[in-house]
What we know:
Blueprint: H1 8-24, E1 38-43, H2 53-62, E2 69-73, E3 77-81, H3 84-90, H4 108-120, E4 127-130, H5 139-149, E5 154-157, H6 159-167, H7 171-202, H8 208-218, H9 222-225, E6 234-236, E7 241-243, E8 265-270, E9 272-274, E10 281-287, H10 291-310, H11 317-331, E11 344-346, E12 353-357, E13 371-382, E14 393-403, E15 411-412, H12 420-423, E16 424-425, H13 430-438, H14 444-450, H15 469-495, H16 522-525, E17 530-532, E18 537-542, E19 545-550, E20 554-562, E21 565-572, E22 597-603, H17 616-643, E23 661-668, E24 677-682, E25 686-691, E26 696-700, E27 704-710, E28 717-730, E29 733-743, H18 760-790, E30 797-798, E31 806-808, E32 815-819, E33 823-826, E34 833-836, E35 840-846, E36 854-861, E37 869-875, H19 879-894, H20 898-901, E38 904-907, H21 914-923, H22 925-930, H23 962-965, H24 1002-1017, E39 1058-1061
Parallel strand pairs: 1-4, 3-39, 4-5, 10-16, 27-30, 35-38
Antiparallel strand pairs: 1-2, 2-3, 6-9, 7-8, 8-10, 11-12, 11-13, 13-14, 14-15, 17-18, 18-19, 20-21, 21-22, 23-24, 23-29, 24-25, 25-26, 27-28, 28-29, 31-32, 32-33, 33-34, 35-36, 36-37
Helix pairs in contact: 2-6, 7-8, 10-11
Amino acid sequence: MSSVILDKENFFRRMKRLYAAWKDGHTESGEPFPKVDVICIAIGNDNSVLYCKSLSLQVWLFGYDINDVIMIFAENSIHFMASKKKIDFLRQVEQHKDENSVPPDGNDKENFEKLISALKNSGNGKSLGIFSKDKFPGAFIEAWNETLKGQNFENVDINNVIASLLSVKEESELSIMKRACQMTVDVYQKYLRDQIMDIIDSDKKVKHSKLADGVDIAITDKKYVGNGVDVTQLYTCYPPIIQSGGNYSLKFSAISDKNNLHFGVIICSFGARYKMYCSNIIRTLLVNPNDSVQENYNFLVDLQEYLFTVLKSGIRLCDVYNNGIKFATEKKPELVDKLTKNFGFVTGIEFRENSLSITSKTTACARKNQVYNLYVGLSGLINNAAESKECKNYSLFVGDTVIVNEDVPVTLLTNSKKRIKNVGIFLKDDSEEEEEEESEKENEPRQEQLMGRGKRSAVLESKLRTDTSSEEKRKQHQKELAVQLNEQARQRLSEQSSGKESAKIRKSNVSYKNHDQMPNESDVKELKIFVDRKYETVILPIFGLPVPFHISTIKNISQSVEGDYTYLRINFFHPGATMARGEGSQFPNPEATFAKEVTYRSINIREPGEVSAPSSNLNNAFRLIKEVQKKFKTREAEEKEKEDLVKQDTLVISSNKGNPKLKDLYMRPTIVNKRMTGSLEAHTNGFRYTSVRGDKVDILYNNIKHAFFQPCDGEMIILLHFHLKHAIMFGKKKHLDVQFYTEVGEITTDLGKHQHMHDRDDLAAEQAERELRMKLKTAFKSFCEKVEAVTKQEIEFDTPFRELGFPGAPYRSTVLLQPTSGCLVNFTEWPPFVVTLEDVELVHFERVQFSLKNFDMVFVFKDYHQKVVIINAIPMNMLDHVKEWLKFFAHVHCNIFPSQCDIRYTEGIQSLNWAKIMKTILDDPDGFFENGGWSFLDPGSDDDEENGDGDSSNEDEVYDPSDLESEEEESDEDSDYSEASEDIDSDEEAELDSDEESGKDWSDLEEEAMKDDMQRAGDFNDEYSSSKKGKSHSVGKSKNRDHDRKHSPKKNTINDLEIQIH
């Protein structure tokens, strides 16, 4: 126990609140504190006790529940009596330790006498504050109770006042309860609700108790509660309750019976208890509800939402109840008698606090930061239109966990939608579906309200996380954008041409148009291999005839020498052959006869009288074919580069000497391999860059999509960058980005150079660099302003916002990505990175998990033929920053249209194969949007996967919740869009061995380390107690603070107390 750290700051702060309430005679919320001389808490060992005030007070003070311990809170001292291991743990809060004191010798009688003396010396030594309802077995507690009986103390119950003190939660407590509530919602939405829908869809017979057992298992499964949760401190507040089939009990003491789940009214109730703090959710699922059931359910939800607005700090709980009854009387007077007798209670370390229940008799007031389990229910309802006896009697029950606020309605912690359209499951037969299709237009408003489910499927909307108010706003806004996104994308695709792009047919090159063009060389007549460089043709002897083959038909050639012979093998392109990217895979006449390969053999031995060996013809042919093939491929590559070039206008040279001009600039990409400086000058309709060698590059204004100016603040270069609409060609390559820059300092530093902080040369160099930076910044800024004036704002230079940047790896290295008014850019590293937000359809965040340090960001463009852009390795702590930028940045800084920058984003835990996704969308866009469109990326999506019924049995024994049994398999295959896969040399046929030994990743190792630490911490085991099953609690980090603060002499505080350990 000594290795476990106690949070001393929490202990002293909360103990101070306890003593302040005791001395003042009332708690912070006004609850009167009974007059007692001393508080005595004795806790035994009883594993059957889950909730009691003694354990709650311990958890509140120490973060742990400790068995077999006596705690005495006297006026000026605190005394503990426990076993040695527990005393070692409690000594962490001891302020005045007596080094000469004798440690406990195990004699309970002597220690009891010391405690009795402490009781009598506190105040008048007569009245004893206890928890009268807490009764513990065990020899240790029985011996202590016998000792107290002979002392004639007056016992005073302080249960209610301690409950009032513990009910007002601190921020740290609220944070834990929010986590517990979120995990409750996650298990309900990701497991329980899906399991019930699967049972209904498959028409299985499953017992309530078996379904409840599955919830108990799921609540400790990280698949449902997340990787950042310590599942050793997570369990249910009470056994989950699943009820259906006419047998309902709207009490938390109810149990899930062994009857099969009935497809009618299904009531689900459970709550997660995390780090000893409780939560709860109650939902009713309705299968094929008629109008009467729907009306009653809507009334119940309206009543609960009305109570949300009534429950505020300062109102009496009986008034909350009476307001609810008044609302019910006005809306549905016939249902008032069917309502539950209370509308909730305070929850926290204890699941239910009876003294703070919302009933007609509770006069206590609600206080800010109290957490309530607020629920309403209707029982004993009759469904006269029921088709079976199980549906005749039914009940309705909804409940949530909420936080009380000062002057505004409560904050909902279990935010899982519960309107009829969210919990209604509407089953339809095939005949009903046909009738519905016929009357679809007439009943459209009705169906929109019910959101009916076709083919035995349930419609349940996705969850909405509300950890923070900003996240809630973002989520709500993203849901609105999702609907707009699918509608706009469908409309855009429908307006486009329905015809698919024509497949590119391989260019058919003709060697000779007629027989007269055939060369009359001797090698041709002698049936030798002849290479015609003029017509790029190889003439091969086949069956005694010279046959011409154009060089484009040859895939590759190889030569080998075996013994006395030389072999020349020629492989041709043919249908079905594996071809490199861009080589073309279709032929004008694929039904024709094609030669796959030809092999020639010639002897290496020169006979007498021969000038050279016969094999010299093969050697010469091999060399010439290679040369012609290389020349042909180079020319083809150049033509391919030029084929989709857009013809540019001619630059109009301005003779004005006052043209804006910048000198001594480098250009990227370079015109030649060697880096050269040059000057950039603005003319009438474009820029012209002229290098010192005389090379010229023209950039026209009407071809500039974005112009950027990046100053040298925090950078070693200052630059102008142009992102073009259509590529221009120089240096035999096409380029969409052109950059002009100059260096402002030494990019590399000689570490071997002697450095001294007072070196005059270094100081002068630094001063010169600062002056150069200012001079260059002024010159570049002046150039930009002049260009904007000359072009009448046709060209506007945008500057990146460095303070809003975030790191990421769009290519191989990590760079600083900086937002501009309409783009996300990086110019410092080459190649540059520019994404135009106006062209982006949506943004998807991959690998978003608490256990990972980085996530990936994927840009999907409105042009689905365009390759998606992926930014890797963005730090996880930048996720909210990026989301806020995507939502608000454009409006705050740019004041441009929302349609340009208000971007829909989603997130998921896996890396997706975007090549296959985009191909699937392009193959069938109508089907994609009919199935929900991009909503499949939403982690909370309720889209169901239609699975065949197979040979599944209807028996209960066969029921197998596969979500719990099977482990999740994640595939991190490389995308087909990988740039590395695009550059395949057709001349080489190498096989890549990708067999890698997979080991444990960092998240698995961290999880094992966490479990090992928890085992090392151990439980509170000693001769007096055994650990309570299933209860493991964390202790906060110790914070070294001085608690010897000044205090008022008129009022005792916790700092006056002397803590003695027995």
